[in-house]
Amino acid sequence: MKMIMIKNALLFVCITAGHFLFAQIDKKATKETNNLYYNLNVISKRNILFGHQHALEYGHGWSNESGRSDVKSVTGSHPAVVGIDFSDFSGRSDEQIKQEKEALRKNVIDTYERGGVTTVSWHFNNPASEGGFYWKDGISKASIALIKPGGSYHEKYKEILKTIADFAKSVKAKDGTLSPMIFRPFHEFDGDWFWWGKSHTAREDFIAVWQFTVSYLKDTLGVHNFIYAFSPDNQFNSEQEYLERYPGDKFVDLFGMDDYGDFGRDGKYDLEAGLKKLEIISNLGQKKKKLAAFTETGLESIPNEKWWTDVLLKTLKSNDLKLAYVLVWRNDSTSPTHFYAPFPGQVSEKDFIRFYDDPFTFFEKDLKEIYNKKLN
Fold it and tell me: Which residues does the Swiss-Prot or TrEMBL record annotate as the active site (predicted)?
């Protein structure tokens, strides 16, 4: 009888504190990274963080102005999640790489010290051919097979990962702690526009490269402040299709999705389809005890004045989704039309303030102690 009571007590603890079951794949992750991972899970049960790509580097009509973001100009707060990119960490001169690393280092540390979250995309310049990160017929090589273990460019790939690892270990705050980052490599891999895309890459090669990348960074190079995100585009309609190139539970911390097509791109909306896909990743997160997030979305130029509340917020609040954050794409500094977050005077500005004011959405000002203690 006593043994049964003990077992029941343990079961009760596990059920009532279910978020304890969520665990990172890196067992040596820093305390701050562990706290962030834990707290993102807690937040996702009741709220969602709002993010903006390149929010602090530049915005609509400006660049490199300390402390500025278009989101802050409208709401008074930076976004809770700030997107950066490792695109210039390879395929550039040593001096260009050095300059980019210095700028991003300050960005990441400042965001961490303010209490915000950094997520990293990687528009990875093709290491085996010209053509940059996009696939260009007649120029680009199908290079995933070349950078996997045993491939002719594998050693070069290891050098590139060393550059990323050096950066990850350099983002130290004033108190000496490392700034955690959500690292999202090879995104939108189910499309064909990047050289790592589905039609250019065998499934087995993609999985091999993903597994090597994660293992090499954390186990060989000693990076322990990354949360690893897996994010295809929206080219799936079932859990089985979503997991077609999944590298396994030991190599992923977060299920993501990039989806512009269902949320108004070219004037086309299919919110039912978009919600179904978000349900798939949310349910996967719960089932596999991992985070889930809407890793990229947005409406270019935001011509729909009520897009924030009538489209995005309504979707995010539907069907008990549990998503850690939603991130919209960048605001170009020179283009009059390429922007995804409002700025003062933009037609969706007032609706964005309503989105900001809704208790469901968290911006940077709403984040408290996400690195220092575990939230309830």
Answer: 188 (proton donor), 296 (nucleophile)
Using one digit for the tens of pLDDT, what is the confidence trace for 222-255? 999 999 999 999 999 999 999 999 999 999 999 9
Q: Which helix (H) or strand (E) holds 168?
A: helix 154-168
Write out the two tokens for 265: 């791109």
CA 269 to chain centre: 23
Q: Is 260 labeled as ligand-binding? A: yes
Q: Which of 95, 188, 239, 279 is catalytic?
A: 188
Residues for the chain: how many in total?
376
Active site residue 296: yes
Task: Give the residues across from 269 on adjacent strands.
Answer: 263
Are residues 177 and 32 in contact, defined by beta-carbon separation less than 8 angstroms? yes
Residues 6+ apart with CB under 8 A from 77: 71, 356, 363, 364, 365, 366
Tokens 């396994």 locate to 248
Dihedral angle of Cα 28, 246, 168, 49, to the nearest 10 degrees: -90
Instruction: Using DSSP bridges, classify how beta strands 325-328 and 117-121 pair: parallel, antiparallel or unpaired.
Output: unpaired
Threshold 0.90, pTM exceeds: yes
List CB contacts of 93: < 8 A, sequence separation 6 or more. none
Write down the pLDDT at residue 60. Answer: 98
What does 296-355 look like in DSSP terms, one character per residue? EE--TT--STTIIIIIIIHHHTGGG---SEEEE----SS-SS--SS--TT-TTHHHHHHH
Question: Is residue 188 annotated as part of the catalytic site, yes or no?
Answer: yes
Show the tokens assigned to 21.
């079951």
- Within 10 angstroms of residue 234's Cβ, the number of other Cβ atoms is 23
The answer to whether 277 and 231 have CB atoms below 8 angstroms apart is no
Mutual orientation of helices 94-114 and 154-168 as an angle, nearest 10°? 40
221: its two tokens: 């190079």
193 is in an annotated binding site: yes
The structural domains of the chain, ordered by start, are 2-366 (3.20.20.80)
Tokens, residue 258? 């990039």
- 134: closest CA among 183, 202, 200, 184? 200
Place of tokens 């273990």: 149
Ranges in the chain, pLDDT < 50:
1-19
Annotated catalytic residue within 272, 296, 305, 349: 296
